[in-house]
């Protein structure tokens, strides 16, 4: 798969949509593809008067996980304009900082894919501040922790997507993660000998972890893949959560088990004393197995940053095998 580096939306049509969105003419000076994500194409639009915004395009042809998206059930979805719109509305209602949605186009009358205009946050990813002075880290990570707690403490008795009329699912949510981890282990074992040799041992370990979990009927709202590359920090040191399509009501431990190995300063700022250690352990292994297969798939499907994809795969294979020690 080769990504189109130029904006696929014809400029005149884009200008018309900008008129609808902003109520006055902004003449486009430049469009730059500045996001190397696997799920959507993102452009920064700079206008002649200095105004900037972000253009999100949900183009399945440019998605590196087409097969998984097409096979996903409703509650496994993490791609699409509807999810972004619903989650953006919910997060802002809860007082969580995320870029504002200016305009959504789902007509597909002129252009075949949904797209949106979103607030441009000028700044760096949160990871840029891991080595900052403690006083600077405090300015960023303490408010970020408070936002996370507010988000995670938004509770519901059924897990699932916000804004869906069905209201959620009553069966245990950890079953979804366990079954996916088993499938990702099977896939990765086809190509990685070290996983193939240890596949049965890892499977038995997952079985034991899942069997230890007790039923639950209280869920918090989580991002689902909250790494430091999914948080932008503006020039006022305010953190904004991005790439929110996969957000949903779920076990909060699913989020924390991911953040634990993605945030260098997790223990200092983000750790919570009320987490279920059994869930933390199972979800952490499931994350590593899923990322092992995910990195492998990116390598196989032409992701432009092959070194990053290989690093994701190798590091998570190693972390998966450490569970056997």
UniProtKB/TrEMBL annotation:
Q: Note the Pfam families from the entry.
A: APH
**Chain ranges of the Aminoglycoside phosphotransferase domain:** 35-255
Protein name in UniProt: Phosphotransferase
Q: What is the lineage of its organism?
A: Bacteria, Bacillati, Bacillota, Bacilli, Bacillales
